[in-house]
From TrEMBL:
Domain Transposase Tc1-like: 72-144
Biased composition (Basic and acidic residues): 65-75
MF term (GO), any: DNA binding
Subcellular location field: Nucleus
Biological processes per GO annotation: DNA integration; DNA transposition
Organism annotation: Caenorhabditis auriculariae
Superkingdom of the source species: Eukaryota
UniProt protein name: Transposase Tc1-like domain-containing protein
GO cellular component entries: nucleus
Pfam families assigned: HTH_Tnp_Tc3_2
Source taxonomy: Eukaryota, Metazoa, Ecdysozoa, Nematoda, Chromadorea
Length: 154
């Protein structure tokens, strides 16, 4: 199916609406614009739907996914609650009692698909030691300034 703007699959409601819209005389371009897919995507869907005698759902081809939606959600939740965790650590935490946990690569793919790339945030102080000392020194030097002294600057 054609993809535009990151939309991967049509929902069941979208599929029904496309079939009804086409029966009502809407063009493929109009349907493509309405549902955010290409004209070729609409055409392929309608051909596949016609070949299956009107059935809109079919068995997906390819290898089945190792993780389900709940697993994916738990991976993302764990990563967001502790962004310093690595993919192997997330795998250990989420699939602690699983008889066959997914690979580390699968966890990385799920994180990448959600927009979380493989970088850990660096721990660093809000202000460096050098700048902290310089600020304290400056504040002590200007502690007893009068309003006239400040007016010379402003």
């Amino acid at each position: 199916m054609g993809r535009i703007s990151g939309k991967k699959d049509l929902t069941d409601n979208d599929k029904r609406a496309i079939v009804v819209g086409r029966q009502n005389g809407l063009t493929m371009m109009t349907l493509a614009g309405m549902f955010g897919v290409t004209k070729a995507g609409i055409s392929q869907f309608l051909k596949r739907q016609k070949a299956q005698d009107g059935s809109t759902n079919s068995q997906r081809t390819g290898r089945p996914r190792v993780t389900d939606r709940n697993d994916d959600r738990n991976i993302l939740k764990t990563s967001r609650t502790n962004p310093r965790l690595t993919a192997p650590a997330i795998r250990r935490e989420v699939f602690l009692n699983s008889p066959s946990p997914p690979s580390v690569s699968t966890v990385k793919r799920r994180l990448n698909a959600a927009g979380i790339m493989g970088r850990r945030p660096v721990k660093k102080p809000l202000i460096s030691e050098k700048n902290r000392v310089a600020r304290v020194k400056w504040a002590k030097e200007h502690l007893n300034w009068t309003r006239q002294d400040w007016n010379k600057i402003l």
